[in-house]
Amino acid sequence: MSSVIERLCAVLPDEAVISGAESLQVYECDALSAYRTLPRFVVLPADIDQVQAVLRICYEENIPVVARGAGTGLSGGALPVADGLVLSLAKLNRILAIDPERRLARVQPGVRNLSVSEAAAPYGLFYAPDPSSQIACTIGGNVAENSGGVHCLKYGLTVHNIAALKILTMEGELLEIGSEALDAPGFDLLALMTGSEGMLGVVVEVTLKLLPKPVQQQILLAAFDSVEAAGHGVAAIIACGIIPAGLEMMDNACIRAVEDYVHAGYPVDAAAILLCELDGVPEEVKSSGKEVADILVKSGATEVRMARDEAEGEKFWVGRKAAFPAVGRIAADYYCMDGTIPRKHIAGVLQTIADLSREYGLGVVNVFHAGDGNLHPLILYDVAVPGELEQAEELGGRILEACVAAGGTITGEHGVGIEKINQMCVQFNAQELTLFHGIKHAFDPPGLLNPGKAVPTLKRCAEFGAMHVHAGQLPFPDLERF
Amino acid sequence: MTVNISSLYQELSERVIAAGSSGQPLILKGGSSKQFYGRNVAGEIIDLRPCSGIIAYEPTELVITAYAGTPLREIENLLSERGQMLPFEPPGFGDNATLGGTVACGLSGPRRPYAGAVRDYVLGIKCLTGKGEILTFGGQVMKNVAGYDVSRLMTGALGTLGIILEVSIKVLPLSEFDIALTRKTDFTAALSDMNAWAGKSLSLSAACYHDGQLDIRLSGKKAAVAAARKILAMEESEAGLDYWRQLREHQLSFFNNNKPLWRLSVPSTTGAMDLAGDWLVDWGGAQRWLRTDEPVDKIRRVTAQAGGHATLFRGGDHDGEVFQPLTPALMKLHLRLKQVFDPDRILNRGRMYHNC
User: Which pTM was predicted?
Assistant: First the structure.
């Protein structure tokens, strides 16, 4: 063991190699903190050469490697492997170039998401994917998870907004994938890498696409006396040929929790509210705003409010952005799910969730990205009550299975990680999982990159049902989560 | 649809398994409208057109799912009846193009720089691998991060990783208003304008320069297009919107020429390139069509120096490499992936690269 430390210290400054138990503890989990494992080492390389040197040592010494950005992930994707090494990319945190003409930003993986839009703002450009953790989360992690955000209905996910990657394979080879042109020869490895949860390679540089910043926003709030009617409202907006920048829904339990917390002025008797954000040039936003207000009234909204100015629009959003902490106030603990379903099944799946909630005797609050059918049911439980945690995670598993049954998926944007690995056995059959393992093997023959995550072994699937793992709370209480 | 799809799939699967055990390469065939694209291949033809028809389409879900053999035209007509479109504006190159061929070839039309490519809209795929297994990846929802993104990996893979059987694609509303505008100018000014405009909210949906003329198309809400028109101060084009259909389908007179046609995909700000021939610059500067007799090596070298890649599109030698050669490390990875999906290397073997 000391020889590995010596080898690491030979390629990195001493302070960039962490091996004491106390210092290692900082890295024992990501934002899914109920899963904790102490790694054997943590290293903090400062450039690509150092990352490459570390990977070569790990390859030769057969040491598992878990790459880590800011550790804000919600599915345990950056959970260390016991006896493994955590490769923190936090020091690779420079924006290398902003090219306003080509509308590209070349950044290191440890750059924070929000800082890209800040750097692009002087040119009237922005980086579209805006996960709720964007103040802290890093671009490398965004690529690993294919992160979305509230605006992805119109502007797409990470996969739609990156042009090129530099990655290091476990064998230590530096690959350039994609290009500054709009496509690249060969297979679409850029898409394959995006959302691969650190299983295929280590991202060491990313070229991001920048978009023109919309000139103006208009926010509408609509109240409905049933979730179904709100669902119809969503469909009616889309049917009229309008793609809002954001389209969010909250159910009554969520509205009440939020109103108690931030007093956003939400109608507390509504069964559901919709928040709709339109953007574009002023002329366009004005005409679309009127059109959407009419559509919402026609589809049965009991009340439609159009923000009169930016300040009022902000106020409408405040409640939505406070939804997670507001729910945190009404329950000892909550567990955030992340299924996606075809929008037409929103009412049906919410009914199933309500039935399951009664069956398990645990409250569920619903808040979601209605535009793209991405649900975030929050299961309320109390970890101090024996058995409730296990009940909560079982209920969560059944909600995800209901999403799959409705033609949806177990994860829209949080990733599989370690958290939803059992549900992967519900969504994919043995042949499909075997193909995933084949892809992993093509990139990482020794299987040392983030082993045990994202794709379950067939053995694990066979055992699924007999296992109990722990669900968690958010350890970044100051981050807005929506 | 009347044909029994599961028995068709069964037959296809059995054929693939038999081909695998005898080592007989198969050539995947849809409408043959893009047969010219890629390297020449040998083998037994497997016709995929019988698997045809729309499986699901609900306009308010913004998703259409169809069998791969469905004619592209049928899909486009259905979408347009409901006020929607395939946003990547795929070229058909004839009336017979199928959905599967469109996705396998991964080609996008003039709207691509502003709306995205085929791969940006593919949500899910059902496919038949070289092992004869029928597998499903992705789905019908916009956001889905469960498992590796095999659907997009298959997009543009020219059928070398699997036979596409079904595809789910995200669709978008047709724009409320479109207009084609034009201006006489030179290449340098046109390139600078196209790049500057792409960085502003101007409802740009296409931009092309050819022979002293800059053509653009604006699409979107009427109010937005009107606002952009005021800023741009360009003439309405006489050819109108049909110009863009002709460009997409390679029906402009530029494409009527016997010299080899190259597609150069380069960063959009790339200046004049040191290659003799006739040029047409599409995609706001990022896709350049070149009719030339310049040597292959020179074309590849000049394009690579610009940070792009060159494809021999039509004409020339399709027995040699048609696509820009990959670095040894990337080629090794391609061969390993081919091995995972098609271990006997029977599916469209060599269509993309010699061994792949």
Answer: 0.95
